[in-house]
Task: inverse folding
């Protein structure tokens, strides 16, 4: 078992402002699997990812990576195993650092030598030539930035990559390129993915198993094949499937 | 759909003269709009939003707008005085923007903003404006309009905020509405509901609507006609629900690169851009 989460609860605030963002959440992801978390904003899907990385206050429950419970705060070994790619490639790269500097930072932190070769190789892997190495983020397009963010996550050779809406800020054609890149990298390196997205089509494209969440609760654990056949259990999942097909006139009037 | 079209656009061009040279964001777009729903689809940088802005005279300086013809209900928008434009905008022509968080005034209650809009365009008293605002909030199916009326924009959710925007834009009974990515900032299920409200109001009032989005599936399921834009030009015009018969390689490429629940190829086909298209 690569990721094992048991009875996780995440609580923000206290007293009147107390919000239980994730309730009794359990998840098992095998090594080499791509697992999807689907839901709307406020469903707690991103909070689960952040909790794995130690970025959210865990009230109860346990998280184990590769059989070992994670330490709080997370140690260096954890980040050598688990890396994250964020949604917004405009916000997740330092605007005053070159691509070279962005990629060399994790190497320096982890005391890895041979930086020069690793940086060139990492760029090559995500389909960027060495010509991009000394550019600043503002000199790159959205898709190129997301490639740099992926290169930064992969440069430490992690086993698990957490993907938080990696393509939702991108154009459709660029989204296809990034999805293909992620799929190829997983196949080549045997990576384990947890992909968070509001787009069922993106999740079913990349992941075999997936979990639908709403208001911090687990609604349905299902797989892409079931959704393909149009046989989800919960009405909420059906609603999500419907929404990916575009607008339909004359459907039931919704309430506020 | 009788008589002259509501809006006629011929050879619309938007240029930005920059230090580094001239950028032509919109390059010869022509179309006409009756009381119907027209969709404009394109990726970022395709010029779809600049087209919409130019129609309303909202091209940011130093942008330069030229056209052989740009008329709204017989009024030449390029020659119209600022005063005429001001009375048209927000009155007979309105625009719903992408993100309610940035397009509503954060320090004014929702009710006050709506009343202000109405009073700027209609000769009416405060009480009438208030009643009209409440009626509009009800028309966009907000529960408890009185409460929403007295709230500030940060106190409502994204979906509610977008409905407030629609209510505010429709309060002056415009003939023509531009919706620029009106649901892109919303959750998928909320998106459906906002679209349903917009659809109902447009049909009920017989407005002309230009619906701008990057989402080809959404636009083609919502609109009567769709213009596909790339590099500031219209690549192709499609009838609604007729995506499968798209001819242009760009449209077909855009469609094919979308993953689908009912199974998509691995890897996804990517879009090969032909420099010829932009010529």
Result:
């Amino acid at each position: 078992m690569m990721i094992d989460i048991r009875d996780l609860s995440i609580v923000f605030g206290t007293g009147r402002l107390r919000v239980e963002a994730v309730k009794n959440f359990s998840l098992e992801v095998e090594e080499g699997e791509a697992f999807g978390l689907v839901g709307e904003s406020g469903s707690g899907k991103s909070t689960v990812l952040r909790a794995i990385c130690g970025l959210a206050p865990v009230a109860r429950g346990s998280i184990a990576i590769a059989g070992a419970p994670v330490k709080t705060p997370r140690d260096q070994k954890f980040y050598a195993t688990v890396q994250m790619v964020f949604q917004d490639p405009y916000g997740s790269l330092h605007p005053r650092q070159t691509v070279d500097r962005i990629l060399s930072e994790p190497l320096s932190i982890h005391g890895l030598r041979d930086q020069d070769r690793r940086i060139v190789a990492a760029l090559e892997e995500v389909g960027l030539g060495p010509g991009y190495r000394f550019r600043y983020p503002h000199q790159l397009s959205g898709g190129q930035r997301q490639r740099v963010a992926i290169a930064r996550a992969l440069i430490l050779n992690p086993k698990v990559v957490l993907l938080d809406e990696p393509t939702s800020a991108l154009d459709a054609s660029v989204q296809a390129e990034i999805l293909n890149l992620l799929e190829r990298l997983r196949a080549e390196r045997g990576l384990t993915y947890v992909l968070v997205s509001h787009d069922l089509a993106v999740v079913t494209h990349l992941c075999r198993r997936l979990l639908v969440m709403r208001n911090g609760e687990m609604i349905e654990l299902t797989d892409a094949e079931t959704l393909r056949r149009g046989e989800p259990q919960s009405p909420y999942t059906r609603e999500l499937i419907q929404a990916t097909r575009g607008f339909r006139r004359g459907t039931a009037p919704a309430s506020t | 759909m009788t008589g002259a079209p509501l809006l006629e656009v011929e050879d619309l061009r938007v240029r930005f003269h920059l230090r580094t040279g001239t950028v032509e964001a919109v390059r010869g777009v022509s179309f006409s709009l009756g009381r119907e729903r027209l969709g404009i689809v394109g990726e970022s940088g395709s010029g779809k939003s600049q087209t919409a802005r130019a129609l309303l005279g909202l091209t940011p300086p130093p942008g330069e707008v030229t056209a052989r013809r740009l008329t709204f209900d017989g009024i030449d928008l390029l020659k119209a005085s600022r005063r005429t434009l001001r009375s048209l905008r927000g009155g007979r022509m309105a625009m719903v923007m992408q993100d309610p968080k940035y397009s509503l005034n954060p320090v004014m209650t929702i009710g006050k903003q709506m009343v202000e809009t109405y009073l700027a365009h209609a000769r009416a008293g405060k009480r009438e404006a208030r009643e009209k605002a409440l009626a509009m909030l009800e028309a966009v199916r907000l529960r408890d309009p009185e409460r929403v009326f007295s709230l500030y924009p940060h106190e409502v959710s994204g979906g509610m905020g977008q409905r407030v925007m629609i209510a505010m834009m429709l309060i002056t009974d415009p003939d023509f509405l531009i919706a620029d990515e009106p649901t892109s900032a919303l959750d998928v299920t909320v998106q459906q509901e906002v679209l349903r409200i917009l659809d109902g109001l447009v049909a009920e009032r017989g407005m002309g609507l230009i619906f701008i989005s990057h989402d080809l599936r959404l636009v083609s399921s919502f609109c009567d006609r769709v213009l596909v834009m790339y590099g500031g030009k219209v690549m192709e015009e499609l009838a609604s629900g007729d995506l499968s018969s798209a001819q242009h390689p760009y449209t077909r490429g855009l469609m094919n690169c979308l993953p689908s629940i009912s199974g998509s190829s691995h890897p996804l086909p990517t879009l090969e851009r032909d420099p010829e298209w932009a010529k």
About this structure: The mean pLDDT of chain B is 89. The interface with chain A takes residues 43-44, 141-143, 158, 187-193, 195-196, 199, 214-218, 220-222, 253-254, 257-264, 266-271 of chain B (CB under 8 Å). The radius of gyration of chain B is 19 Å. Residues 183 and 221 of chain B are 14 Å apart (CA to CA).
